[in-house]
Structure formats: C-alpha cells, structure tokens
Amino acid sequence: MSLIEPNAIRVNRHTDPRVNLRIAKQAAERLAVIGDDPQRTQTRLGELEREWDIERAIEANAASFALVGTVLALSVSLWWLALPLAVTSFLLLHALMGWCPPVPVLRRLGFRTPREIEEERHALLSRVESRPAAVAHANARPTGAYPTPSRATLGPASDHRDAAAGDEPGKQKSQAFSSAN
After folding, report:
1. What is the model's pLDDT at position 75?
2. Span 99-112, mean pLDDT?
3. Structural domain boundaries, residue 90
4. How does DSSP assign 106-169, residue by residue?
5. Looking at residues 123-129, what average pLDDT do you find?
C-alpha cells in the first residue's frame, strides 16, 4: 500500500468489506425496484444529483469542526486550536490515503463514494438508452400541449409589440398581402 492511494478505490479499500457489500447490495435493490419504469428512473436520477457523497460529507464535517474550534479558541481558550489542527490533519490524511476517523462512521451511515453514485447513475442511464420507445413515451407531452413557440414561429418583434398593445399580430401583414393581390 502506497502513501497516496488511487482515487477510485481509496475509500473502499479502507472500509469494512461488509459495509462495502451492504452499500452495493442496497444500490442493486434500488435498481431492481425501479426496474424499467421511466418515471421512477427519472426520479432516482434526480435523487442521485442531490446525494451527498462521502467526500462532501467529510469536507462539511472538517469545515464545521475547524470553524467551531477556531471560534472557541478566540472566545474561550487557545487550547481549542488543537481541534482545527487535528481536523485539518485528518483532512490531509484523507486526501492522501482515503481514510480518516470519520470515514468508517460515514460509510456505516450509508455515504457512498462518487464512483459508487456514478455507477448507479450509469446503470440507470443505460436502461434509458436501451428502451427508446419508453423514453419517447416518458418525454411525450400530454394531449393538447403545445411546444413553446420559438422566435421563428412568432414572427418579427413588431408583431409582439402590437399584440401587447392589444392589436392582432399579423393583421397588417394579411391586409397588405390582400391589397397587393
């Protein structure tokens, strides 16, 4: 084991194999429940976008403890500077090796690595790509819905100003056209 671990495996390597297995099993169960349902797939993809990975949780944890330690050092006793010193040391250790004291706790709480989250996202996206008819159905507009008009379909900007003033857009054009004929 080197001092600097490869990014993709560093947290997993320092996590209890039973915890890694439980996290993988939970992801597989979620995928099985979602199945081929396009609505559930889109909902889960949204959840994955908002999920905090272990890196973000560690950063928030370290920042919180460093801030609390600094405030306490300024207001109570300089001995509280030991807290930000320890936390930043742990953060450096995590950056180099993928392990620090909060990692086992956070992994047991279910925090996943960015790679684990991305693997689930990839599995969902590959299902979406493998069923084009289902995707077309999921993206279809309800009956009676119209696409948002583009600038090209609305015509010149003067028509829009006329419409806002209460005039009928395009009326002048049709009158000009009929008088020319």
Report:
1. 97
2. 94
3. 10-130
4. HHHTT---HHHHHHHHHHHHHHHHH-HHHHHHHHPPPTT--PPPPHHHH--HHHHHHHHTTPPT
5. 89
**Residue 4 counted as domain residue:** no
Given a contact cutoff of 8 angstroms between Cβ atoms, the answer to whether 16 and 109 are in contact is: no
The two most distant CA atoms of the chain are separated, in Å, by 93
- Residue 141 counted as domain residue: no
Residue at 87 is within a domain: yes
| Total of domains in the chain | 1
Q: State whether residue 35 is helix, strand or coil.
A: coil
Backbone angle region of 149, left / alpha / beta, with phi > 0 → left and psi within -120 to 50 → alpha: beta
Q: What is the mean pLDDT of residues 162-178?
A: 43
Please give the Cα distance from 19 to 23 (Å, whole number).
Answer: 6
Q: Which H helix or E strand runs over 32?
A: helix 17-34
d(CA 107, CA 116): 12
The residue with tokens 């999920």 is 51
* pLDDT, tens digit, 9 for 90 and up, residues 65-79: 999 999 999 999 999
Please report whether residue 155 resides in a domain: no
* Nearby residues of 94 by Cβ (< 8 Å), 6 or more positions away: 58, 100, 103
Q: Which residue's entry shows tokens 């609390």? A: 68
Rg (CA), the chain: 28
